[in-house]
Specification:
There is one protein chain. This protein has a 7-stranded mixed β-sheet, with helices on both faces. Strands 10-11-13-12 form a 4-stranded antiparallel β-sheet. A two-stranded antiparallel ribbon has the order 8-9. The two termini are 14 Å apart. 34% of the residues lie in helices and 9% in strands. The structure holds pyridoxal-5'-phosphate (PLP). Pyridoxal-5'-phosphate binds next to helix 6.
Length: 514
């Protein structure tokens, strides 16, 4: 219970006037089990008639230990918890690599239409033609944006999309009879952690490619690693340093010449959609995070959606289920390997068809922006990141020279001699009213701070954020240590022991027996 029962009275008050929310509006909140108790029942149930026990030995002998709560108690519990979270609906959420952008309420309205929201995945296909039509339309947009040949809609997150793509690559290698000899996957050292994890989960051996001084793939090192045992390269573009990989076409050509495949991590499509087509970059497989690029909600466990687009070489290995037919006739669902068109499918990623609610939101987003609007999304995302870079670069230390794509990356050298670390700085940002930026990632940059504003921020909100960042940098230089080492001072939970929290997390609630 160490983490969430902080005594408010012991919390130091803000002294610098930065605290804008009254803590009085935020009451401490325990777990459901602590708020309620098992002797209470929230509903008015009729007393049971004495029934003979028909469970035999299976009948319960001890109490269930479930907390009983009334409706207002339950409601307050969840509303209080919700107020402890930072949210994109509260303010700029600069978490680099995560693309925390505004989710237009129109998307929500569409997703709640009963014809979409009340479907059951086991309904007969003839009764869900509209939903299949929507999936077909979404697939059409994703293929138009990327120029690719096929898309598997079912993966439920970016990481699962990676797995889908890598399993297609594995199936293609297997079909050529090369699985035993082609098992090495090249992954740049700046890659998102999910990339090597995916390759390993698919049974490949991982081989890291170092970054050069500009934060891009070191081409000499890459070329030396090519060989007949290379199955694929997994490359993010723009990469996790927020930079475009200018050699991407050469990388694709070289990997293809050596019989390997090009997996592109497309989580950052937000920065290039409508500007360059993934197909023209030589990509064989790429996942798209609908919950990043197309604004559907993410974080806090989801639900995300990671459709995976595939080139001609991989299309036939796509997993079931997939939608067939078109609006002219009727739509069908191919659900099993023995059905027409699915002979080479590698299997399936999940029980049903994917995250329907996210499909509706993403398509609503695409259709309300239109093709030109989506291109402008990319342009504005890059513009906003460069605006922040320009406002911060004289005080902060950009990790690399020049302009960035959709996110700006700083190292911690501007903090040299201040005694303040990237962690302290991030914690202090909480007291300024912001969720911290991504920190210590990518690993190739010392004390990294990765800031992604997204295109949905106004000039005013960018300036407000930049002002907060600059004032903190000044405070660090002025040796205002308390502001950092004691931060956060205004959050529901104060400074945690990060190491203890990571090494000894409390994952199980135990009743207080006193
Ligand atoms: C977010 C992200 C992923 C993983 O996506 P999830 O939906 O969180 O699984 C993979 N790669 C990159 C570069 C990302 O930014």
């Amino acid at each position: 219970m160490a983490v969430h029962t902080q005594d408010r009275a012991t919390r130091p008050a803000a002294t610098d006037g930065t605290q804008r929310l009254s803590p009085a509006l935020l009451q401490d909140e325990g777990l459901l089990f602590e708020v309620g108790n098992e002797h209470k029942c929230g509903v008015d149930l009729e007393a049971l008639n004495e029934q003979p026990n028909r469970l035999g030995e299976l009948a319960r002998t001890s109490a269930t230990g479930l907390a009983g709560l009334s409706e207002p108690e339950t409601l307050r519990h969840y509303v209080r918890l919700s107020q402890r979270n930072y949210a994109i609906d509260l303010g700029l959420y600069p978490l680099g690599s995560c693309t925390m952008k505004h989710n237009p309420r129109l998307n929500e309205k569409m997703a709640r239409l009963p014809g979409f929201a009340d479907l059951h995945p086991l309904q007969p296909v003839s009764t869900v033609q509209g939903a299949l039509g929507l999936m077909d339309e979404l697939a059409h947009w994703l293929l138009r944006i990327t120029g690719m040949n096929a898309v598997a809609l079912s993966p439920k997150a970016g990481a699962q999309g990676e797995m889908c793509g890598m399993l297609c690559i594995r199936a293609a290698i297997d079909a050529k009879g090369e699985l035993a000899s082609r098992n090495r996957v090249l992954v740049p050292e700046s890659a998102h952690g999910t990339n090597p994890a995916t390759a390993a989960a698919c049974g490949f051996v991982i081989d890291q490619i170092p970054a050069n001084a500009d934060g891009r793939v070191d081409m000499d090192a890459f070329q030396q690693k090519l060989g007949p045992d290379v199955a694929a390269i997994m490359l993010t573009n723009p990469n996790t340093c927020g930079l475009f990989e200018p050699d991407i076409k050469r990388i694709a050509d070289l990997i293809h010449q050596h019989g390997g495949y090009f997996y592109c991590d497309g989580a950052n499509l937000n920065a290039i959609m409508g500007k360059c087509r993934v197909r023209d970059l030589g990509v064989d497989a790429m996942h798209i995070n609908l919950h990043k690029t197309f604004s559907t909600p993410h974080g806090g466990g989801g639900p995300g959606a990671g459709p995976t687009v595939l080139s001609n070489r991989l299309a036939k290995f796509a997993p079931v289920p997939f939608v067939t037919g078109d609006a002219g006739s009727s739509f069908g669902l191919v659900e099993r390997g023995e059905q027409k068109g699915a002979a080479d499918a590698f299997g399936r990623m999940c029980a049903f068809h994917g995250q329907m609610g996210m499909f509706v939101r993403a398509l609503a987003y695409m259709m309300s922006h239109g093709g030109d609007g989506l291109r402008q999304v990319s342009e504005d995302a890059v513009l906003n990141a460069n605006y922040l870079l320009a406002r911060l670069q004289d005080v902060f230390s950009p990790a690399f020279c020049g302009t960035c794509m959709h996110e700006a990356l700083f190292d911690d050298s501007f903090l040299d001699g201040t005694g303040v670390s990237t962690l302290d700085f991030s914690k202090a940002l909480i007291d300024e009213g912001y969720h911290p930026m991504t920190m210590y990632f990518p690993l190739v940059v010392h004390g990294a701070m990765l800031v992604e504003p997204t295109e949905t921020e106004s000039l005013q909100s960018l300036d407000q954020f930049a002002d907060a960042m600059l004032s903190l940098a000044q405070a660090a230089k002025d040796q205002d240590h308390d502001r950092f080492t004691q931060a956060p001072r205004t959050a529901p939970s104060l400074r945690l022991d990060e190491t203890q929290a990571a090494r000894h997390p409390i994952l199980r609630w135990t009743a207080n027996t006193e």
